[in-house]
Amino acid sequence: MSDLVGAASTRGRHWPPLRMSWEERDHHRWAGPMAAVGLASGVALAVLGLPPVDLHSPLHNAGVMDPLCGATRGVHAAMLGEFGTAWRYNPFSLVLVLGAAGASLREAVGRLRGRWLNLRMTHRRTVVLTGVVLVTALEANQQAHVGLLRSGPGTSPSAWLLLTVSLPLAAAVVLLTLLLVRRVGHTPHAPAAPSHRADPSG
């Protein structure tokens, strides 16, 4: 009987692999700023259009797609409300847009209520294996749409202006990520509570 109880408690600790909880401390302080920068980049894509430059690797031009192929065009379509087009270019583009919107909403609710929705990984192996399966499926999907992804995105008169917006935003994302990672790494830990042991001499 004790073995069954122990097995049940083990399953309870490891499932589900991700656990969400409302807490008074924000454990993902990088999520809100990153989401804001991402949404700003998406708005720039929607307003100014796609960049008129080809940033693909030689493998792309040879017909070998990677999981992120078509993501820029997918985000551009999603920001314009063309979700079907975004899905055809890259399903992950919808995840990026919806994730940025969700993180921004989380940031707003947290600042208004003083409580934050935190996400914790309770079973790392399950999360990693699921991620590998999803990336593999995405790669297969992108390779199956090689004809669509190798087509040019087209240009527009205002597309050159996108470079003056996207490059500073990309630099801001990189700098912000480095600063947040460094800050998390130098966050002082709370001192351990002193242990109260009985004095043998007393």
Q: By helix and strand content, what is the structural category?
A: mainly alpha
Widest β-sheet, arrangement of strands: 1-2
Separation of the first and last Cα atoms:
44 Å
Overall form: globular
Portion of residues in beta strands equals: 5-15%
Q: What string gives the helices and strands in order?
A: HEHHHHHEHHH
- The averaged pLDDT comes out at 77
List key phrases describing it.
two-stranded antiparallel ribbon; 202 residues; disordered N terminus; 2 strands; 61% helix
General description of the model:
With 202 residues, this protein is mainly alpha-helical. Helix content is 61%, strand content 6%. The protein has nine helices and two strands, in the order H-E-H-H-H-H-H-E-H-H-H. The chain has helices spanning 2-14, 31-48, 58-61, 71-79, 83-89, 91-113, 124-144, 146-149, 161-185, and strands spanning 18-23, 116-121. The protein has a two-stranded antiparallel sheet. Helix 2 crosses helix 4, helix 2 (31-48) packs antiparallel against helix 9 and helix 4 packs across helix 6 (91-113). The longest helix is centred in the C-terminal third of the chain and has 25 residues, at 161-185. The two termini are 44 Å apart. The model is unreliable at 1-14 and 154-166 (pLDDT under 50).
